[in-house]
Amino acid sequence: MNVSKDTYKTISQPSGEVLFKEKNSKFFGYAFPVVNEEEVKVHLEQLKKQHFSARHWCYAYQIGTDKISFRANDDGEPNNSAGMPIYGQIQSFEVTNILIVVVRYFGGVKLGVGGLISAYKTTAQMALENAEIIEKTIDVFFKLTFDYKNMNKVMRIIKEKNLDIVAQKMEMNCELLFSTRKKNAETTFDIFSNLFEIKIEKVD
Prior knowledge:
alpha+beta; Ribosomal Protein S5, domain 2; Alpha-Beta Plaits; 2 domains; Ribosomal_Su5_D2-typ_SF; Impact_N
């Protein structure tokens, strides 16, 4: 992802269930927005309960914008016949912070590796086409520390620069957490770091 790009694509909410059939096998596809591996586990557990008599629960996910983490899982299908075709669709649609699960009920007829790759890819594609893909900004978070007397000065800049306040603690010593788009982060940091009696630090 290049430095100047400060947006990414993901899905707004879980997609509805899609169904693809091939030679009596049924493939149910789902797409979920996720931000960490814990959420991935939760969705997988729920689907395993929902489809307890299925044969395979294959999935792929990608999380992150600058630092990408991803995983593709064949769950007992032949190597790279399920997880990677699903992950290929995540790449093809250029989405991140997403989990796609394809649940397979075996229909008694073997599909062969080529047939499996095609079925998992198609089901993942259908799940993504069934989801609403949205663009989000990559935001950078900063913490400001200042005395109460400097409150007006700080708030004026926050308003002028249209910064989003995430949290604030307003006492004699004030702390304020705000976010800004990645492309504005450096300028914003410079504005506050040049102010007298105001401390700014980046928060990961």
